Amino acid sequence: HMAMLCKAGSLEEKALAAILTEPLTYWEAVNGPQGQQWFLAMKDEYTSLIDHGTCELVELPPGRKLVGCKWVFKLKQDEHGNITRFKARLVAKGYTQREGIDFHETFSPVVKFSTLRAMLAVAVSKDWEIDQIDFKTAFLNGEADEEIYMKQPEGFEIPGREHLVCKLRKAIYGLRQSSRQWNRRADAVLRGIGFERSKVDDCLYIKTNEDDEAIAMIGIWVDDCIIEGESKELMREIKRQIAEELEFT
Prior knowledge:
By secondary structure, the protein is α+β, with helices and mostly antiparallel strands. Helices cover 33% and strands 27% of the residues.
């Protein structure tokens, strides 16, 4: 009887896995068994782009290259494998950009592993509080320096205005310079709340007191960061200040 239950469970798991897959295209997403969930996920992403003032619909200027875009789908699961979220992200096809016309600097520095180890050692030795935050739609916080024109996202073309294109006001995922623009934005925010960038690691930020003693540190890894500080009150205040400028979870 136990063997039959195990076999049945295995078959159920396989059946569930076959159903709950991450689609590769818009067509697969909306026509699959979870079509409604995926469409709502795309709608949520598109609404976020609009709310952030990411783009405006315009005529494509003569001689300008048009960047494509695609939907990327991801199932978010908890530690037990249960589905917690259907997530869709609109990604620009950045490989169609031309250097010198559509983008310049493209890199985003990340904190060194040796720096992370040092941060953890400091936190342990000083008995500091430590936390991790994930910035929400991080790349949408960077202003676009260049004029970039992108196709309207599949499934969300505006009726009667399909000939128009999206002029990007802010960098989005997939553009070659997006991560660099985000890093600039994060740097400005952290400096604005009293942190100084370390001379030994561009992604390590340190906050000191009046006696020039370190009281908090932040290490950035693209759109994630580790925060540590000497007290819970200080940590709450730092996160409150960051939240005034950047969304995070």
